[in-house]
Write a structure and sequence with these properties.
By secondary structure, the chain is α/β, with parallel strands linked by helices. It has helices at residues 9-14, 17-23, 49-57, 71-84, 95-104, 121-133, 146-152, 175-184, 234-248, 254-263, 267-291, 307-313, 328-337, 367-373, 389-402, and strands spanning 2-3, 27-28, 88-92, 112-116, 137-141, 157-163, 188-192, 210-214, 228-232, 295-297, 320-324, 342-343, 353-355, 379-383. It has a domain at 267-402: Aspartate Aminotransferase, domain 1, CATH 3.90.1150.
């Protein structure tokens, strides 16, 4: 196989983001196909015994086994790295496989992790339950309070782990401040960028070391497959992440890789359009929510405490926001009254989706932990899709009225 039209790596890195999203990581076979080929194979054959010996020894390039390399997966990895501005990327079986691999590949018993209190429920499970089982100490902090990061540092702190904007409270972390602080103390920053994607935010531009994704979300963008990705320097990917991945096997299937690869072609168009719609819907909702005694959590609105910071480190503030209506009864009444917007716990989809985090994505955390995070009984999280904004407003208007708002 050859890379697209013979362009080398230096040339592709000179392309602008829109070109990278369509052309990056395209390898063509001798057939000259326009759409990237799908290689559904677990293994490979070789012309002679010395060739396979050289490949396994690392003395020759080429595929050895699909747990290590697959052409379709490799195309996705190259495109994601280009979009992220990273030297390298390894695809993972899911977003949580990506988060788990990004942490466990570099941590050992006796190490310490500082993590954001506001995070996806499964990410908090890693921090609160999995890492401590292996002797890894953890501290959770209010990630939107800059001073808390430095206060939490210990001599054995190895990793800062956070997402921005955070799920589902939409806390915004000051990327430059936290990444600069980490570098000054020799700490590795691992940033979950799933709420933004590289189309809207590139943490490495602010000094992040590792960026992890649930590619299930905006990268696929149409609710079709599970996928994840971890980006970093070539050295970190090859020497830290790859040994863990090679021997534990959280690999992405070629089919899922192909689906996400095609989704990346329209990522920027979708992410920016959905961001604009999210702001418009947030502006529509905010007066009603405030009048009912609730509040918005939307980084795209001036009412968000870190609105200006979000605008400074994001191209757009994303399709996802949350709002609090006070009680579970009101929240459920809104969900039950919706006719267009679906009840679903996914995000990043082209369809508008809404869920009640306290009873879904964060249900396994327990009431006390949810309270510390700000995941209240009245909180609703919405992913704003590609539907006409006026239809979405009408659906929300109808649902709010049904809940007495």
């Amino acid at each position: 196989m050859k890379k697209t039209t013979g362009m080398d790596r230096t040339t592709t890195r000179q392309w602008r983001p829109a070109t990278r999203a369509v052309r990056g990581g395209t390898w063509r076979s001798e057939h000259g196909e326009t759409s990237e080929a799908m290689f559904l194979t677990s293994g490979y054959t070789y012309d002679d015994a010395q060739t396979v010996a050289d490949r396994f020894a690392g003395d020759a390039k080429g595929m050895t086994y699909s747990r290590l390399q697959n052409p379709t997966v490799a195309m996705l990895e190259e495109r994601v790295a280009l979009l992220e501005g990273a030297e390298a990327c390894r695809a993972q079986a899911s977003g949580m496989a990506a988060m788990t691999a990004a942490l466990l590949c570099q941590l050992s018993s006796g190490d310490h992790v500082v993590a954001a209190r506001a995070a996806f429920g499964s990410c908090r499970w890693l921090v609160d339950h999995l890492l401590p089982r292996f002797g890894i100490e953890t501290t959770v902090i209010g990630s939107a309070v800059d001073e808390e990061w430095e206060k939490a540092i210990r001599p054995n702190t190895r990793v800062f782990f956070f997402e921005t904007p955070a799920n589902p409270t939409l806390d915004v972390v000051d990327l430059k401040y936290v990444c600069d602080l980490a570098k000054a103390h020799g700490i590795t920053t691992v940033v979950d960028n799933a709420f933004a994607s590289p189309a809207l935010q590139r943490p490495m531009e602010f000094g992040a070391d590792v960026v992890a994704y649930s590619a299930t979300k905006l990268m696929d963008g149409q609710g079709r497959v599970l996928a994840g990705a971890v980006c970093g320097t070539q050295e970190w990917i090859d020497e830290v992440l790859l040994p863990f991945q090679r021997n534990t096997g959280p690999n992405l299937s070629p089919f899922n890789a192909w689906v996400v690869h095609k989704g990346l072609e329209t990522l920027s168009l979708r992410a920016h359009h959905q961001s604009r719609s999210a702001v418009a819907l947030g502006e529509f909702l905010e007066p009603r929510i405030a009048k009912a005694g609730g509040h918005m959590r939307h980084p795209g609105l001036p009412s968000h405490p870190r609105h200006e910071l979000a605008l400074g480190q994001m191209e757009a503030t994303g399709p996802i926001f949350a709002f609090d209506v006070g009680t579970r009864e009101r929240a459920f009444a809104i969900l039950d009254a919706m006719e267009l917007i679906d009840i679903s716990n996914n995000i990043g989809d082209a369809r508008s989706l809404m869920c009640h985090p306290a009873s879904t994505t964060h249900a396994n955390m327990g009431e006390e932990a949810r309270g510390e995070m700000g995941v209240t009984e009245g909180l609703l999280r919405i992913n704003v899709g590609l539907e006409d904004i006026e239809d979405l407003k009408e659906d929300m208007d109808r649902a709010l009225k049904a809940a007495g708002i």
